[in-house]
Amino acid sequence: MDDYVLVNGKKLRKGYTTGSCAAAASKAAVMMLVSGAVPQSVCIRLPSGELLELAVGDAALRDGEAVCSVVKDGGDDPDVTTGLKIFATARLMGESGINIKAGEGIGRVTLPGLKAEVGGPAINPVPMHMIVNAVREAAGEGRGAEIVLSVPGGEEIAKSTYNPRLGIVGGISILGTTGIVVPVSEDAWREALAAELNVLSARGIKNPVYAFGNYGQHFGVDKLGLREDNIIKIGNFVGFMLDRAIECKAHSVLIIGHMGKLVKVSAGIFNTHSRTADARMEILAGYAALEGASCGVVSQIYGCGTTEAAMAIIASEGLNGVFRRVVSNASERCMQYTFNKIRVGTVLFDGCGTLLEMDSNARDMLDKLGRGYE
């Protein structure tokens, strides 16, 4: 599709979701059964009310069934499902109901907490609504249809998505809240994180662990003995995920991170992306001053280009109280953010994977889990 969005000054092409592809393929297959003609493209209506035209391929009629496919195109978004063919096999039924089934390469939900039912296909409500409406429009009054969706290669591709962590097995999910893929969409990322937390909550996990990325997750598993599937990689979305923890009625949250992220949280910055806020050196210099560092040392820290360089100065000057301030302030700020509805503990590690400091809340949480951290 020829629609674009500006991201950090760069023009990026939008794409369309697996839900849009499934709706278009389903509509095309039913149109073939009704008219006998092979459509080259079909128009579907997006949740916004806009129309989206998508090309149709692999059309075939056989034994009262019609098959069509639509190729997933995520635009300039780094989407692993781009290039997959979403197939729909349609059969008309005498009654007016619409029955949507999952075939090869479509995931199946095995854990509660998601928007789709346990045991059913991993098709979210919005795309399901789009598919049903598209089929109903093509079938006309008084006709029902059965649609079997399939994605060759979907099971293998799904291994590179969030699905394994969400308990979705056997293939990809049919997703999309708008029908359109916006490149580098934070909304899509946040939605996936919220779903992951919902699954943990449905499993009875009320003490989730948040890490900013892979390093934090590995530290939690390798050094703290935590279960990998209880750790959510939250990226920059600290505030958002604290809000979601409140919604899930979590009792506590353990945050594991390195200095570059945690020092921001310790000063009340709840989106840690550099374009949102930085001030890392200002915060560290301030903490060093509070710990009694000389003006010269404070200036050195303030002038550092990386937190690793600043940490080296802090360590060489014996200013370990800075690390204690980072973890205790981070926990306190997060608890204030949640209006003290959730207890928060913080663990700080360095670039070599060495534990630098944890606050008393974190120590207590790990003690209750029976995990080692020495």
UniProtKB/TrEMBL annotation:
Pathway this chain belongs to: Cofactor biosynthesis; adenosylcobalamin biosynthesis; cob(II)yrinate a,c-diamide from sirohydrochlorin (anaerobic route): step 6/10
Keyword annotations of the record: Cobalamin biosynthesis, Methyltransferase, S-adenosyl-L-methionine, Transferase
EC number: 2.1.1.195
SUPFAM superfamilies xref list: CbiD-like (SSF111342)
Keyword Transferase (UniProt): yes
Catalytic activity annotation: Co-precorrin-5B + S-adenosyl-L-methionine = Co-precorrin-6A + S-adenosyl-L-homocysteine
GO biological process terms, semicolon-separated: anaerobic cobalamin biosynthetic process; methylation
Keyword Methyltransferase: yes
Pfam families to which the protein is assigned, alphabetical: CbiD
GO molecular function, one term: cobalt-precorrin-5B C1-methyltransferase activity
UniProt family annotation: Belongs to the CbiD family.
Record protein name field: Cobalt-precorrin-5B C(1)-methyltransferase
